[in-house]
Design brief:
heterotrimer, A mainly alpha (206), B mainly alpha (578), C alpha+beta (450), B: 578 residues, mainly alpha, Cytochrome C Oxidase, Chain A, 0% strand, C: alpha+beta, Immunoglobulin-like, Cytochrome Bc1 Complex, Chain D, domain 2, 5-stranded mixed sheet, 11 helices, 15 strands
Chain lengths: 206, 578, 450
């Protein structure tokens, strides 16, 4: 039976946007379930932060350094940068779905550069925070949440870098691209979680 | 050369030991991984049982034999080992071994990640065990590890040592193994089913695997979050999360912990329920009654399991009582549905009672008591009286510990011929059943009575109130009777491995696909699959023609089930990996 | 009989029968025991309600158990395979039956839910606003209990205090005896002392001891008049030094339950209720006792090494006896009690620790730290700071910009080095038994007021 005679599957536009028209591979299913578990992990941490904030004896860092909210500019800038890297990452996925490996590599390179810059900025945020991890609930949640998020960004970057190298070696085409789709979904998740983390930490919880 | 070739095909026969060991260490075959889970979890279960015997010896009479510190360490490790290293992984053992066979898959969706899960689990278990060797000993704050007693900040008089950190890290690892395992189960069930195996044709054990997988996937990460916060609290944050002396909240831990650990009791009991369902289906020659309502009850238990966690915290004064009371009461309904469905399966059945079936009936009886005592705890005012007494201990052992263990033992007797090609000895099996059934009832029913009389749990010595010494002595006797039963089982396992009666491909007249292949199955599982037209493809094959005129017999080949995964062969999905 | 004989012929069968007989005997024994045990007879109104609810659930549970167990046994013995090729009915479901066994349990649990809900409301209702209430502040700690009572103010003072709850500042004749967190009682009104400035005492006012639940960092000392406070270490039996909380029969009692360190739970089996002592929280347990007597009680939430020995007694006596006891207790200075609340703690000089402890000790008294924290840093109004685990830099921060009610000490009053000296001294003092000096002062206060 020729492939052409199979009836065309109707694919929801959102699904088509995120993972393409092709049937989802086991790998893609796996990464989606994995992202669900990661969402629950961060949900636990963020719920802990909100619970602590709503009912704590004290919140501000106890060494009196004040929270990092004094300087909003850099956090906002890097938040925008990190979240907007979802766009080149998605373009990379679009490109490889059409078989355009060159465009994919360029877009992934943008993600790698901006993501690394984000991590470097996080390093400076940590070293300039002015309070230690033991200085009360705000301080402890600050380091825990940004730390775990940072670890996930680094993990994502390493994975993307590995796929980028594979791309250089000529891997991936219009059909064989699960790793790129997976990396894209994961990268969206990392950016989305950062929005959830940074806003409560910096803006809402006063 | 001839020997070597022979060794490759039958690794047990002539191969040298190193080859066999290396093969098992590097295997990615779901069956071998399942068997490794089985041995490891079984060994840990015996360790946990040994701990319980130490506790029972201490409690047999008033006065103390071992120090309070030792007792606290032992009961903590009894709980931790039994839950994290026995009940959870032994469920994973059967899910690993049987689920892919039941859906006609070649292997798990991610065989290498499956192996990784096992090795992470083993490493976490070893880490927990090694904590006996460090200064300060193991964690000794109970398996629930409620802070601030786990912390070395604030006013805790005797802060725990490195054993507590090893416990936290160990359980994080065990949780990670569970999460990887659950992703594997879910993707395997969704994507690897054989052609014709629609969702409504999944065997009930596979359904429980699916729901268990979802519970693990969504709840375990929250435990990981709690453990991570606990670890940071001990190592740097000085109690900023869980100790009020640095702004933390002790109840935050309890909320996060039980958000995992309540679903966890379903993670332990659901696979056992699945095994029991399959066993009933086989040994009654009837379809499991109300298959769809069984599945819906399963899903309902899973959903409700996520909104009842705070019923472990009724006496903390920090939870909204009516909501959690109502949700907890509701769980009795789907549980009752399952109970009645099982009984209805045996009703008018053509029942035989090999050991697997005995353990399944035992499961029903134990779970009935466990379920009814659960209702006492759901009623908040009564829970005020019973919380943290031996009534709770009796209740949860009846449900998630002993009923679950009976389910898993049923699974052992049921799938042993499939795994090793030999029957377990029936006589020894029946002796095992009676010893264990009598022993555990003596232990846990007496504990219920003791709890009513107000004896708190987790104490290493007790006042000589009237009747307490006698009841404690009865419990201790029961514990040793149960242990004797388990020794019979252990002997039976080794006896049957060596001298057991040979079993064919389908020794029980099974109904599900794992019986459609040889015992033990080949590495690629199946040479051919029968046509799948219902949740009992082998039953249809064997009795379908005879039952053609039976108006109640139908294969639900209605064609509009969820055929998505079934329409594609496993090899078709494997091709697209990139 | 033949089946038994057949069973007896095999070795395993004989073993099974013997074990079965022994087990049956044991069960009979446990049945005899169980005839004596059930939930204990309640000695409180709330307990009576809970016990009634328990029996409702027990009745339902036993009926359900018997029915379902009978069904299991019946299907097991009734339906056995008679021949190898027997095929039973293939009925796979029955909608009516399934709706029935979903619906009936649903109705049962809904009924039980409402029964439990109303009992819960009742148990937690507390006292009427015009009712006189005995307020006992309970503090659990590793491994002892402290019970403290509100101090009744003399009637002559009543005139200076209006009924207006907005009035939060009161004048007392000798306010120097008043310390923060102390509870004062005037008629049905309870006041928790917040602060004192000169002659003016600031209080939080509430009837029935319904002082707003406060969080406090560190050790929360709800210390006012010290009723009993004893260590239970090493003993299980009621002994001379078992902590006893004395309460009247008939009057509503409000236990304000707090913890000084880790989780504990206040559990008196005859009350048929318990409540956790959670560090950082003060929680309320309402009990109206109906019978005089001494009720053995103990901690019910695991709290470390000597959890099993953390017992106490509730002594309920008739109102007149209680009043006489209270008068007597409040009028005499209680004897100091020996005890070790912190467990043995080796004093370790940290390597590289800076500071001169001798200078620190002098400074500690010169700066008046002992006024709030006690002469050994054991904590009075302020938290216990002996052998504090708070790092030095945070301690310095606390001096400069205090978190709680502490006075700020700028660097011109005490330098960082001097704080380090105090810190060094604090590391050398053992955590002593809690000071017992306040009650005698309270006796004076009561005398002054009345």
């Amino acid at each position: 039976m020729a492939v052409g005679t199979l009836p065309q599957r109707r694919v929801h536009p959102i699904r088509s946007f995120l993972v393409g028209e092709e049937p989802m591979t086991t790998g893609l299913w796996g990464i989606i379930f994995f992202i669900f578990s990661e969402i629950m992990f961060f949900a636990g941490l963020i719920a802990a932060m909100l619970a602590l904030h709503s009912d704590t004896l004290f919140w501000e860092p106890t060494n009196g350094a004040g929270r990092v909210e004094g300087d909003h500019l850099l956090p906002i800038l890097f938040t925008i940068l990190l979240v907007s890297t979802s766009i080149p990452m998605q373009f990379a996925a679009f490109a490889i779905r059409k078989g355009n490996r060159r465009a994919m590599l360029i877009n992934m390179a943008i993600v790698l550069v901006v993501g690394t810059a984000f991590i470097i900025n996080q390093y400076f945020e940590w070293t300039h925070a002015g309070f230690g991890i033991s200085d009360g609930p705000y301080a402890a949640t600050f380091y825990t949440l940004t730390g775990f998020h940072g670890a996930h960004v680094i993990g994502g970057l390493l994975f993307i870098f590995a796929q980028w190298l594979r791309g250089l070696l000529g891997h991936f085409d219009a059909r064989r691209n699960t790793a790129i789709e997976a990396a894209t979904l994961y990268w969206h998740f990392v950016g989305f979680v950062w929005l959830l983390v940074i806003f409560p930490l910096v803006f809402f919880l006063s | 050369m001839a020997t070597l070739a022979g060794a490759q095909t039958t690794p047990y026969a002539g191969a040298n030991a190193w080859r066999v060991i290396l093969e098992w260490l590097t295997t990615v075959d779901h069956k071998k991984i399942g068997i490794m889970y089985l041995w490891t979890a079984g060994a840990f279960g015996l360790v946990g049982m040994a701990f319980s015997l130490v506790m029972r010896t201490e409690l047999a009479q008033t006065g103390t034999i071992i120090s309070a510190e030792t007792y606290n360490s032992i009961f903590t490790m009894h709980g931790s080992v039994m839950i994290f290293l026995f009940l959870l992984p032994i469920g994973a053992a059967f899910m690993n071994y049987s689920m892919p066979l039941q859906i006609g898959a070649l292997d798990m969706a991610f065989p290498r990640i499956n192996a990784l899960s096992f090795w992470i689990f083993l490493f976490g278990g070893v880490l927990l065990t090694l904590s006996f060797a460090v200064e300060g000993g193991t964690a000794s704050a109970g398996w629930t590890a409620y802070p601030p007693i786990t912390l070395d900040s604030g006013n805790n008089a005797e802060p725990p040592g490195a054993g507590m950190d090893m416990w936290l890290v160990g359980v994080i690892l065990l949780g990670q193994a569970s999460i990887f395992g659950s992703i594997n189960f879910l993707v395997t069930i969704f994507k690897m089913r054989a052609p014709g195996m629609t969702m409504w044709r999944l065997p009930l054990f596979t359904w429980t695997t699916l729901v268990t997988g979802l519970l693990i996937l969504l709840s375990t990460p929250v435990l990981a979050a709690a453990l991570v916060l606990g670890f940071i609290d001990r190592n740097g944050a000085m109690g900023a999360f869980f100790d009020p002396s640095n702004g933390g909240q002790p109840l935050l831990w309890q909320n996060l912990f039980w958000f995992y650990s309540h679903p966890a009791v379903y993670i332990m009991i659901l696979p056992a329920m699945g095994i029991v369902s399959d066993v009933f289906g086989v040994f009654t020659r009837r379809p499991v009654f109300g298959y769809r309502s069984m599945v819906l009850a399963l899903v309902a238990i899973g959903l409700l399991g996520f909104i009842v966690w705070a019923h472990h915290m009724f006496t903390t004064g920090g939870v909204f009582l009516p909501f959690f009371m109502g949700a907890t009461f509701l769980i009795a309904v789907p549980t009752g549905v399952k109970m009645f469905n099982w009984i209805a399966t045996m009703w008018r059945g053509s029942n035989i009672f090999p050991t697997a079936m005995l353990f399944s009936v035992g499961f029903l009886m134990l779970f009935l008591i466990g379920g009814i005592t659960g209702v006492f705890h759901a009623a908040v005012p009564v829970d005020f009286a019973l919380h943290d007494t031996y009534f709770v201990v009796g209740h949860f052992h009846y449900t998630m510990s002993i009923a679950a263990t009976f389910g898993f033992l049923a699974g052992c007797y049921y799938w042993f011929p499939k795994m090793f090609g030999k029957f377990m000895n029936e006589g020894l099996g029946k002796l095992h059943f009676w010893l264990l059934f009598i022993g555990v009832n003596l232990v846990f029913f007496t504990q219920l009575l003791l709890g009513l009389d107000g004896m708190p749990r987790r104490i290493n010595d007790y006042a000589d109130n009237p009747g307490w010494e006698l009841m404690n002595m009865l419990i201790t006797i029961g514990a040793f009777v149960s242990a004797a039963g388990m020794m019979v089982f252990l002997y039976n396992v080794f006896y049957s491995l060596k001298w057991g009666e040979r079993a064919g491909a389908d020794p029980w007249e099974g109904t599900t696909l794992e019986w459609a292949t040889t015992s033990p199955p080949p590495a690629h599982n199946f040479d051919s699959l029968p046509e799948i037209r219902s949740e009992r493809p082998l039953f249809d094959l064997r009795f379908g023609e005879r039952l053609q005129d039976d108006p109640h017999y139908h294969v639900n080949g209605n064609g509009h089930g969820n055929g998505g995964g079934g329409a594609r062969t496993p090899s078709a999905t494997a091709r697209e990996e990139g | 009989m033949t089946a038994l004989q057949r069973l007896w012929r095999t070795r395993i069968g004989r073993l099974t029968l013997v074990i079965g007989a022994v087990a049956a005997a044991l069960f009979a024994l446990s049945g005899l025991v169980s005839a004596q045990v059930a939930l204990p007879e309640a000695v409180s109104e709330q307990g009576d309600d809970i016990r009634a609810l328990f029996f409702v659930i027990l009745a339902v549970g036993v009926i359900v158990f018997l029915i379902v167990e009978a069904m299991i046994i019946w299907v097991v013995f009734r339906y056995k395979r008679k021949s190898d090729d027997e095929l039973p009915t293939q009925i796979g479901h029955n909608t009516t039956a399934e709706i029935l066994w979903t619906g009936i349990p649903l109705v049962i649990v809904v009924v039980l839910f409402f029964a439990s809900f109303f009992v819960l409301q009742d148990v937690q209702a507390g006292a009427d606003s015009d009712e006189d209430v005995t307020v006992v502040d309970v503090q659990g700690r590793q491994w002892a209990w402290a019970f403290n009572y509100a101090v009744p103010l003399g009637t002559s003072l009543a005139e200076s205090i209006s009924n207006d709850p907005a009035q939060t500042e009161i004048m007392l004749e000798d306010p120097s005896l008043v310390v923060p967190f102390m509870t004062l009682k005037l008629g049905v009104e309870h006041m928790r002392v917040v602060a004192r400035t000169g002659d003016v005492v600031t209080v939080e006012r509430a009837v029935n001891g319904t002082v707003p639940i406060r969080h406090s960092a560190g050790t929360l000392v709800l210390r006012s008049f010290n009723g009993t406070e004893t260590v239970a270490e090493g003993r299980l039996q009621a002994a001379d030094n078992t902590p006893i909380v004395t309460v009247p029969v008939g009057q509503m009692i409000r236990f304000n339950i707090a913890s000084a360190d880790v989780l504990h739970a206040f559990y008196t089996p005859q009350f048929l209720t318990k409540l956790d002592a959670v560090p950082g929280r003060v929680q309320t347990l309402w009990v109206r006792i109906t019978e005089a007597g001494v009720f053995q009680s103990q901690c019910a939430e695991f709290c470390g090494r000597d959890h099993a020995r953390m017992i106490f007694s509730v002594e309920a006596m008739a109102q007149d006896d209680y009043d006489a006891w209270f008068e007597n207790k409040a009028g005499s200075a209680p004897e100091p009690v020996e005890g070790d609340f912190g467990g043995e703690q080796e004093v370790e000089q940290e390597e590289g620790a800076v500071g001169n402890p001798i200078n620190g000790q002098n400074l500690f008294f010169a700066m008046g730290c002992n006024v709030c924290h006690g002469d050994q840093g054991e904590g009075l109004v302020g938290p216990t700071i002996a052998m504090t685990v708070v790092p030095l830099d945070r301690v310095i921060q606390q001096y400069r910009e205090p978190l709680e009610a502490m006075t700020a000490f700028p660097p011109d009053q005490i330098s960082d080095e001097e704080i380090a000296d105090v810190y060094a001294w604090l590391q050398t003092v053992e955590r002593p038994p809690v000071a017992q000096e306040i009650p005698s002062k309270l006796a004076e206060l009561i005398a002054a007021g009345g």
